[in-house]
Amino acid sequence: MADYPLDSVPDAKPQSMPDPTGKPGPDAIFDFLVIGAGPTGLACAIEAQRAGFSTVLVDKGCVCNSLFNYPAHMTFFTTSELLEIGDIPFPSPNAKPTRTEALEYYRGVAAFYKLDVRQYQRVERVTGVDGAFVVHIVDRYGRHGALKARKLAVSTGYYDIPNYMNIPGENLSKVHHYYDDPHPYFGTDVLVVGGKNSAAIAALELWRHGARVALIHRDSEIHRHVKYWIKPDIENRIKNGEIKAFFRSHVVEITPDVVVLETPDGRQVLRNDFVFAMTGYRPDFSFLENMGVRFDGPDRLPVCDPETLESNVPGIYLAGVIVAGSRTNEIFIENGRFHGKQIARALTTKRDSA
Fold first, then answer.
1. How many alpha carbons fall within 13 Å on the CB side of residue 70?
2. pTM across the whole model
Protein backbone atom coordinates (compact mmCIF):
# COMPACT_ATOMS: atom_id res chain seq x y z
CA MET A 1 0.00 0.00 0.00
CA ALA A 2 1.19 3.50 -0.77
CA ASP A 3 2.05 5.77 2.15
CA TYR A 4 0.51 9.22 1.77
CA PRO A 5 0.80 11.95 4.40
CA LEU A 6 -2.49 12.74 6.03
CA ASP A 7 -2.42 16.34 4.84
CA SER A 8 -1.96 15.32 1.22
CA VAL A 9 -4.65 12.95 0.03
CA PRO A 10 -4.41 12.34 -3.75
CA ASP A 11 -7.65 12.29 -5.72
CA ALA A 12 -9.72 12.89 -2.59
CA LYS A 13 -11.88 16.00 -2.41
CA PRO A 14 -13.55 16.82 0.90
CA GLN A 15 -17.27 17.22 0.51
CA SER A 16 -18.11 20.89 0.23
CA MET A 17 -21.41 20.84 2.14
CA PRO A 18 -21.23 20.78 5.96
CA ASP A 19 -22.61 17.65 7.57
CA PRO A 20 -26.06 18.56 8.96
CA THR A 21 -25.79 15.78 11.57
CA GLY A 22 -22.86 17.46 13.26
CA LYS A 23 -20.55 14.49 12.62
CA PRO A 24 -16.80 15.13 12.48
CA GLY A 25 -15.75 16.64 9.17
CA PRO A 26 -13.33 15.37 6.51
CA ASP A 27 -10.26 16.53 8.44
CA ALA A 28 -11.08 14.46 11.54
CA ILE A 29 -8.76 11.57 12.38
CA PHE A 30 -10.62 8.64 13.93
CA ASP A 31 -9.00 6.06 16.16
CA PHE A 32 -10.93 3.26 14.49
CA LEU A 33 -12.83 2.95 11.21
CA VAL A 34 -15.02 -0.02 10.33
CA ILE A 35 -15.75 -0.84 6.69
CA GLY A 36 -19.17 -2.49 6.69
CA ALA A 37 -22.15 -1.65 8.92
CA GLY A 38 -23.75 -5.06 9.25
CA PRO A 39 -24.34 -6.69 12.65
CA THR A 40 -20.67 -7.67 13.02
CA GLY A 41 -19.44 -4.25 11.91
CA LEU A 42 -21.81 -2.59 14.37
CA ALA A 43 -20.51 -4.87 17.13
CA CYS A 44 -16.92 -3.91 16.28
CA ALA A 45 -17.74 -0.20 16.46
CA ILE A 46 -19.67 -0.59 19.72
CA GLU A 47 -16.87 -2.44 21.49
CA ALA A 48 -14.20 -0.02 20.28
CA GLN A 49 -16.32 2.95 21.29
CA ARG A 50 -16.94 1.46 24.73
CA ALA A 51 -13.17 1.05 25.10
CA GLY A 52 -12.71 4.78 24.53
CA PHE A 53 -11.78 4.91 20.85
CA SER A 54 -13.30 7.45 18.48
CA THR A 55 -15.08 5.33 15.89
CA VAL A 56 -16.81 5.65 12.52
CA LEU A 57 -18.44 3.11 10.19
CA VAL A 58 -18.71 3.29 6.40
CA ASP A 59 -21.10 1.26 4.25
CA LYS A 60 -21.91 1.42 0.56
CA GLY A 61 -25.58 0.81 1.43
CA CYS A 62 -27.77 1.24 4.47
CA VAL A 63 -27.21 -0.08 7.98
CA CYS A 64 -27.32 -3.90 7.78
CA ASN A 65 -27.50 -3.64 3.99
CA SER A 66 -27.13 -7.38 3.34
CA LEU A 67 -29.84 -8.19 5.86
CA PHE A 68 -32.08 -5.58 4.26
CA ASN A 69 -31.68 -7.39 0.93
CA TYR A 70 -32.67 -10.78 2.35
CA PRO A 71 -36.10 -12.12 1.34
CA ALA A 72 -38.83 -9.84 2.68
CA HIS A 73 -40.54 -12.59 4.70
CA MET A 74 -37.39 -14.32 5.91
CA THR A 75 -37.28 -15.93 9.34
CA PHE A 76 -33.91 -16.55 10.99
CA PHE A 77 -32.74 -20.08 11.66
CA THR A 78 -31.70 -19.09 15.18
CA THR A 79 -33.19 -17.52 18.30
CA SER A 80 -33.09 -13.80 19.01
CA GLU A 81 -30.64 -13.90 21.92
CA LEU A 82 -27.98 -15.32 19.61
CA LEU A 83 -28.26 -12.23 17.41
CA GLU A 84 -27.73 -9.72 20.21
CA ILE A 85 -24.88 -7.21 20.15
CA GLY A 86 -23.72 -4.53 22.57
CA ASP A 87 -25.41 -6.23 25.55
CA ILE A 88 -28.77 -4.96 24.28
CA PRO A 89 -31.62 -7.53 24.61
CA PHE A 90 -33.42 -8.54 21.42
CA PRO A 91 -37.05 -9.13 22.42
CA SER A 92 -39.18 -11.09 19.97
CA PRO A 93 -42.61 -12.71 20.33
CA ASN A 94 -41.50 -15.40 17.90
CA ALA A 95 -39.35 -18.45 18.58
CA LYS A 96 -37.21 -17.35 15.65
CA PRO A 97 -37.15 -13.63 14.78
CA THR A 98 -37.98 -12.21 11.37
CA ARG A 99 -35.90 -10.05 9.07
CA THR A 100 -38.13 -7.06 9.89
CA GLU A 101 -37.61 -7.55 13.63
CA ALA A 102 -33.85 -7.84 13.18
CA LEU A 103 -33.63 -4.64 11.14
CA GLU A 104 -35.60 -2.79 13.82
CA TYR A 105 -33.35 -4.23 16.53
CA TYR A 106 -30.07 -3.27 14.85
CA ARG A 107 -31.36 0.23 14.04
CA GLY A 108 -32.23 0.60 17.70
CA VAL A 109 -28.80 -0.57 18.83
CA ALA A 110 -27.04 1.84 16.46
CA ALA A 111 -29.20 4.69 17.75
CA PHE A 112 -28.66 3.73 21.42
CA TYR A 113 -24.87 3.85 21.05
CA LYS A 114 -25.05 6.97 18.81
CA LEU A 115 -22.83 5.25 16.27
CA ASP A 116 -21.38 7.45 13.53
CA VAL A 117 -22.48 5.51 10.45
CA ARG A 118 -21.66 6.97 7.03
CA GLN A 119 -24.28 5.23 4.85
CA TYR A 120 -24.21 5.08 1.04
CA GLN A 121 -20.46 5.71 0.99
CA ARG A 122 -18.59 3.13 -1.08
CA VAL A 123 -14.93 2.56 -0.24
CA GLU A 124 -12.86 2.77 -3.41
CA ARG A 125 -9.46 2.08 -1.89
CA VAL A 126 -7.35 2.39 1.22
CA THR A 127 -3.98 4.08 1.34
CA GLY A 128 -1.55 4.93 4.11
CA VAL A 129 -0.06 2.76 6.84
CA ASP A 130 -0.76 1.66 10.40
CA GLY A 131 -1.59 4.75 12.42
CA ALA A 132 -2.28 6.89 9.36
CA PHE A 133 -4.80 5.23 7.03
CA VAL A 134 -6.79 7.12 4.42
CA VAL A 135 -10.07 5.54 3.30
CA HIS A 136 -11.12 6.94 -0.07
CA ILE A 137 -14.90 6.98 -0.51
CA VAL A 138 -17.43 7.94 -3.16
CA ASP A 139 -21.10 8.63 -2.50
CA ARG A 140 -24.10 7.62 -4.62
CA TYR A 141 -23.80 10.86 -6.65
CA GLY A 142 -20.20 10.18 -7.59
CA ARG A 143 -18.71 12.72 -5.18
CA HIS A 144 -15.34 11.74 -3.76
CA GLY A 145 -14.11 12.16 -0.21
CA ALA A 146 -11.78 10.63 2.34
CA LEU A 147 -11.80 9.57 5.97
CA LYS A 148 -8.66 9.24 8.08
CA ALA A 149 -8.14 6.66 10.79
CA ARG A 150 -5.38 5.11 12.85
CA LYS A 151 -6.80 1.56 12.74
CA LEU A 152 -9.23 -0.22 10.42
CA ALA A 153 -11.56 -3.19 10.57
CA VAL A 154 -13.02 -4.81 7.47
CA SER A 155 -16.41 -6.45 8.01
CA THR A 156 -17.83 -6.53 4.50
CA GLY A 157 -19.52 -9.93 4.57
CA TYR A 158 -19.98 -11.98 1.42
CA TYR A 159 -23.51 -11.32 0.15
CA ASP A 160 -22.58 -8.80 -2.55
CA ILE A 161 -20.86 -11.06 -5.09
CA PRO A 162 -22.87 -14.03 -6.41
CA ASN A 163 -21.24 -17.20 -7.67
CA TYR A 164 -22.07 -16.87 -11.33
CA MET A 165 -22.88 -19.84 -13.55
CA ASN A 166 -20.99 -18.28 -16.48
CA ILE A 167 -23.39 -19.53 -19.12
CA PRO A 168 -25.03 -17.88 -22.14
CA GLY A 169 -28.03 -15.79 -21.15
CA GLU A 170 -27.11 -15.32 -17.51
CA ASN A 171 -27.10 -11.55 -18.05
CA LEU A 172 -30.75 -11.48 -19.14
CA SER A 173 -33.06 -9.39 -16.96
CA LYS A 174 -35.14 -12.49 -16.15
CA VAL A 175 -32.21 -13.98 -14.20
CA HIS A 176 -31.90 -13.09 -10.52
CA HIS A 177 -29.20 -14.01 -8.03
CA TYR A 178 -31.23 -12.71 -5.10
CA TYR A 179 -34.72 -13.73 -4.04
CA ASP A 180 -37.03 -11.21 -2.40
CA ASP A 181 -40.79 -11.69 -2.71
CA PRO A 182 -42.90 -14.34 -4.48
CA HIS A 183 -45.82 -12.12 -5.53
CA PRO A 184 -44.48 -10.90 -8.93
CA TYR A 185 -44.04 -14.49 -10.14
CA PHE A 186 -47.63 -15.69 -9.73
CA GLY A 187 -48.70 -17.72 -12.77
CA THR A 188 -45.22 -17.83 -14.31
CA ASP A 189 -42.72 -20.60 -15.06
CA VAL A 190 -39.78 -20.25 -12.67
CA LEU A 191 -36.55 -22.24 -12.46
CA VAL A 192 -34.66 -22.28 -9.14
CA VAL A 193 -31.00 -23.25 -9.38
CA GLY A 194 -29.44 -24.79 -6.27
CA GLY A 195 -30.16 -27.31 -3.52
CA LYS A 196 -29.36 -25.57 -0.25
CA ASN A 197 -31.45 -23.49 2.15
CA SER A 198 -31.91 -20.40 -0.01
CA ALA A 199 -32.93 -22.44 -3.05
CA ALA A 200 -35.34 -24.62 -1.06
CA ILE A 201 -36.97 -21.61 0.61
CA ALA A 202 -37.33 -19.75 -2.70
CA ALA A 203 -38.81 -22.80 -4.46
CA LEU A 204 -41.34 -23.40 -1.68
CA GLU A 205 -42.45 -19.78 -1.40
CA LEU A 206 -42.76 -19.36 -5.16
CA TRP A 207 -44.81 -22.55 -5.44
CA ARG A 208 -47.09 -21.57 -2.57
CA HIS A 209 -47.76 -18.22 -4.20
CA GLY A 210 -48.85 -19.66 -7.53
CA ALA A 211 -45.69 -20.01 -9.60
CA ARG A 212 -44.97 -23.15 -11.62
CA VAL A 213 -41.63 -24.14 -10.14
CA ALA A 214 -38.82 -26.37 -11.32
CA LEU A 215 -35.61 -26.90 -9.36
CA ILE A 216 -32.22 -27.99 -10.69
CA HIS A 217 -29.28 -29.14 -8.60
CA ARG A 218 -25.89 -30.62 -9.46
CA ASP A 219 -26.03 -33.18 -6.64
CA SER A 220 -28.21 -36.27 -6.39
CA GLU A 221 -30.54 -34.84 -3.72
CA ILE A 222 -31.39 -31.79 -1.64
CA HIS A 223 -28.36 -30.85 0.44
CA ARG A 224 -28.18 -32.64 3.79
CA HIS A 225 -27.59 -29.37 5.66
CA VAL A 226 -30.93 -27.85 4.65
CA LYS A 227 -32.77 -26.97 7.88
CA TYR A 228 -34.69 -29.85 9.40
CA TRP A 229 -38.10 -28.17 9.09
CA ILE A 230 -37.50 -27.17 5.44
CA LYS A 231 -35.94 -30.35 4.02
CA PRO A 232 -38.98 -32.67 4.37
CA ASP A 233 -41.23 -29.93 3.00
CA ILE A 234 -39.28 -29.46 -0.23
CA GLU A 235 -38.73 -33.22 -0.60
CA ASN A 236 -42.45 -33.90 -0.26
CA ARG A 237 -43.32 -31.23 -2.82
CA ILE A 238 -40.88 -32.88 -5.22
CA LYS A 239 -42.19 -36.37 -4.44
CA ASN A 240 -45.76 -35.23 -5.10
CA GLY A 241 -44.79 -33.64 -8.41
CA GLU A 242 -45.78 -30.17 -7.21
CA ILE A 243 -42.22 -28.96 -7.79
CA LYS A 244 -40.38 -30.65 -10.66
CA ALA A 245 -36.77 -31.45 -9.75
CA PHE A 246 -33.74 -32.21 -11.91
CA PHE A 247 -30.87 -33.71 -9.93
CA ARG A 248 -27.32 -34.38 -11.16
CA SER A 249 -28.11 -31.68 -13.70
CA HIS A 250 -27.05 -28.16 -14.61
CA VAL A 251 -28.17 -25.23 -16.77
CA VAL A 252 -26.28 -24.77 -20.03
CA GLU A 253 -28.17 -21.87 -21.62
CA ILE A 254 -30.89 -19.32 -20.84
CA THR A 255 -32.95 -17.56 -23.51
CA PRO A 256 -35.86 -15.12 -23.18
CA ASP A 257 -38.38 -17.97 -23.45
CA VAL A 258 -36.66 -21.21 -22.36
CA VAL A 259 -33.85 -22.72 -20.33
CA VAL A 260 -31.68 -25.56 -21.62
CA LEU A 261 -30.68 -28.19 -19.07
CA GLU A 262 -28.09 -30.96 -19.17
CA THR A 263 -29.59 -33.93 -17.30
CA PRO A 264 -28.77 -37.65 -16.90
CA ASP A 265 -31.47 -38.25 -19.54
CA GLY A 266 -29.88 -35.83 -22.00
CA ARG A 267 -30.63 -32.23 -22.83
CA GLN A 268 -34.03 -30.86 -21.95
CA VAL A 269 -35.67 -27.57 -22.83
CA LEU A 270 -38.10 -25.97 -20.40
CA ARG A 271 -40.52 -23.13 -21.00
CA ASN A 272 -39.36 -20.38 -18.67
CA ASP A 273 -40.15 -16.84 -17.55
CA PHE A 274 -37.72 -16.33 -14.66
CA VAL A 275 -34.59 -17.93 -13.22
CA PHE A 276 -33.42 -17.66 -9.61
CA ALA A 277 -29.78 -18.72 -9.49
CA MET A 278 -29.35 -19.42 -5.78
CA THR A 279 -25.76 -20.54 -6.28
CA GLY A 280 -24.23 -18.85 -3.25
CA TYR A 281 -22.02 -15.84 -2.75
CA ARG A 282 -18.39 -15.07 -1.98
CA PRO A 283 -16.37 -12.36 -0.25
CA ASP A 284 -14.75 -9.58 -2.28
CA PHE A 285 -11.25 -11.01 -2.19
CA SER A 286 -9.86 -8.40 -4.58
CA PHE A 287 -10.91 -5.59 -2.22
CA LEU A 288 -8.85 -7.14 0.58
CA GLU A 289 -5.95 -7.97 -1.72
CA ASN A 290 -5.76 -4.35 -2.83
CA MET A 291 -5.19 -3.45 0.81
CA GLY A 292 -2.34 -5.96 0.99
CA VAL A 293 -4.17 -8.78 2.82
CA ARG A 294 -2.78 -12.18 1.89
CA PHE A 295 -4.68 -15.46 1.54
CA ASP A 296 -3.64 -19.06 2.13
CA GLY A 297 -4.78 -22.36 0.66
CA PRO A 298 -7.61 -23.41 -1.63
CA ASP A 299 -10.22 -21.93 0.75
CA ARG A 300 -8.54 -18.54 0.50
CA LEU A 301 -8.25 -18.06 4.24
CA PRO A 302 -6.99 -14.55 4.97
CA VAL A 303 -3.80 -14.32 6.97
CA CYS A 304 -4.74 -12.99 10.41
CA ASP A 305 -3.96 -13.57 14.09
CA PRO A 306 -6.74 -15.80 15.50
CA GLU A 307 -6.57 -14.02 18.87
CA THR A 308 -6.51 -10.38 17.77
CA LEU A 309 -7.93 -10.77 14.22
CA GLU A 310 -5.23 -8.40 12.95
CA SER A 311 -4.33 -9.29 9.36
CA ASN A 312 -0.84 -9.50 7.90
CA VAL A 313 -1.20 -5.75 7.25
CA PRO A 314 -0.44 -3.99 10.55
CA GLY A 315 -3.43 -2.00 11.79
CA ILE A 316 -6.01 -3.73 9.56
CA TYR A 317 -8.33 -6.14 11.39
CA LEU A 318 -10.82 -8.60 9.90
CA ALA A 319 -14.25 -9.43 11.29
CA GLY A 320 -17.20 -11.58 10.38
CA VAL A 321 -17.48 -14.11 7.62
CA ILE A 322 -14.44 -12.88 5.69
CA VAL A 323 -12.24 -14.44 8.40
CA ALA A 324 -13.27 -17.84 6.99
CA GLY A 325 -12.37 -17.02 3.38
CA SER A 326 -14.48 -19.00 0.95
CA ARG A 327 -15.82 -21.24 3.74
CA THR A 328 -18.78 -18.92 4.16
CA ASN A 329 -20.84 -21.50 6.08
CA GLU A 330 -18.59 -21.31 9.15
CA ILE A 331 -19.23 -17.80 10.47
CA PHE A 332 -22.63 -16.21 10.98
CA ILE A 333 -23.97 -13.37 13.12
CA GLU A 334 -24.14 -15.81 16.04
CA ASN A 335 -20.34 -16.20 16.27
CA GLY A 336 -19.10 -13.24 14.21
CA ARG A 337 -20.66 -10.80 16.68
CA PHE A 338 -17.90 -11.67 19.20
CA HIS A 339 -15.15 -10.48 16.85
CA GLY A 340 -15.74 -6.93 18.05
CA LYS A 341 -14.67 -7.85 21.58
CA GLN A 342 -11.52 -9.54 20.27
CA ILE A 343 -10.53 -6.51 18.22
CA ALA A 344 -11.34 -4.06 21.02
CA ARG A 345 -9.12 -6.04 23.41
CA ALA A 346 -6.29 -5.94 20.88
CA LEU A 347 -6.69 -2.19 20.37
CA THR A 348 -6.75 -1.62 24.14
CA THR A 349 -3.64 -3.74 24.67
CA LYS A 350 -1.73 -1.77 22.05
CA ARG A 351 -2.87 1.52 23.46
CA ASP A 352 -1.99 0.61 27.03
CA SER A 353 1.44 -0.71 26.09
CA ALA A 354 2.36 2.32 23.97
1. 19
2. 0.86
